TrEMBL record:
Residues 1-162 form the N-acetyltransferase domain. It comes from Aureibacter tunicatorum. GO terms for molecular function: acyltransferase activity, transferring groups other than amino-acyl groups. Keywords: Ribonucleoprotein, Ribosomal protein. It holds the Pfam family Acetyltransf_1. This is Ribosomal protein S18 acetylase RimI-like enzyme.
Amino acid sequence: MEIKTLEKVSFKAIVECFLAAFSDYFVAMPQETSYYEKRWKAAGVDWKYSYGAFDQDKLVAFIIHAVDYRQGKKKAYNTGTGVLPSHRGNKLIKRIYQKAMIDLAKADFNQIELEVIKENIPALRSYQSIGFEISSSYKCYSGEISLGDISEQAFELREIDKGEFDWELSQGKYSWDYQKPSLVSADYKYYYLVVHGKPESYFIINATGNIGQFDVLQENDNAWKRLMKAIASVSNTVKIINVDESNASKVQILERHNLRNTVDQYEMLLRI
């Protein structure tokens, strides 16, 4: 078994291994190669710092890392880890990380981040054995927004160019794919919800209804209701990945509008 970077591996071979490794995963994974081209480009994947295990030149396990300076630290973000079913039980991810951490330390990285589904106990234990620690808890939602009783107060829904969006308005904690550097590299639309001439809330959404960020600027129940109404006017069916579980107001408003909690995840980090 050889451990090396994915720099010289074809994109097709990486996607094929990825889909095979996730064929029995907790949630169904998109099958289109174009999805992964866009997703990994937006995340900032660097194949020089992504690694695979090769059995007689066949890719059988992988760790795909995006890299960036965020929150004042040089970070590697694990945007995909997998092992072919035929090669599980050989501690390949641990072996890959032994190689990766040497390279990342030499390149002055500060930490590695990843997310893991809470129910995926084998993966959770594997990461903990490597040295990863739980840093946050996230909840994921999807479904049709049920509006119910909505305040009749007038508001303006204003779409703006991403270059005009005031990132100082961004509230709370978001995971890697939904932080500014990832969002501006992807295809999202940006909206302000304006009341009495001032932004009251905002949301960022793509053409498939995936919400990158959303929040009210001042905690107010009617403001949350108006925001959900505004989102529904753009896309009534939505998907919201990795809502910070500690944000009780946001969690409550999503559940109150009958969005389904599809899966829960831990964010984990490893200091190098």
